[in-house]
């Protein structure tokens, strides 16, 4: 897919330093954007890239396809819904330090 900007550039994931939730969080002003209308947010940012891991880039629209809810009152609720959707879609790989360091 041709992205409107480089997924690893300053408008994307800042040189591959930001992935998943962090890329989406950069697009939201916690003071001004809530309650967040999901349809309006996806209309504005849907075609922009989100780096999931070192080799996977998907669109904001792709991430939001699995999000339940049309509106979110605050940042925490939005991020919980995004995390759940990303896990269900296979876009979430980190499950905490306990899971990756001697957890199982």
Give a written overview of the molecule.
By secondary structure, the protein is of the alpha+beta class. It has one domain (21-100). The chain is 35% helix and 12% strand. The protein has 5 helices and 4 strands. The chain has helices spanning 21-25, 38-45, 60-64, 75-88, 97-100; strands at 36-37, 49-53, 56-59, 71-72. The protein has a two-stranded antiparallel sheet. The mean pLDDT is 83.
List keywords for this structure.
globular, 104 residues, 5 helices, 4 strands, two-stranded antiparallel ribbon, alpha+beta
Concise overview:
The chain has 104 residues and is α+β, with helices and mostly antiparallel strands. The protein has helices at residues 21-25, 38-45, 60-64, 75-88, 97-100, and strands spanning 36-37, 49-53, 56-59, 71-72. The protein is globular and about 30 Å long.
């Amino acid at each position: 897919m041709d992205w409107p900007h480089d997924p690893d550039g300053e408008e994307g994931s800042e040189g591959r330093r930001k992935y998943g939730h962090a890329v989406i969080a950069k697009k939201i002003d916690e003071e001004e954007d809530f309650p967040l209308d999901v349809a309006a947010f996806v209309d504005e940012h849907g075609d922009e890239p989100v780096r999931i891991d070192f080799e996977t880039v998907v669109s904001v629209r792709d991430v939001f396809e699995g999000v339940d809810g049309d509106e979110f009152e605050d940042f925490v609720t939005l991020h919980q819904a995004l995390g759940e959707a990303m896990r269900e879609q296979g876009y979430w790989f980190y499950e905490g330090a306990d899971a990756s360091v001697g957890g199982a």
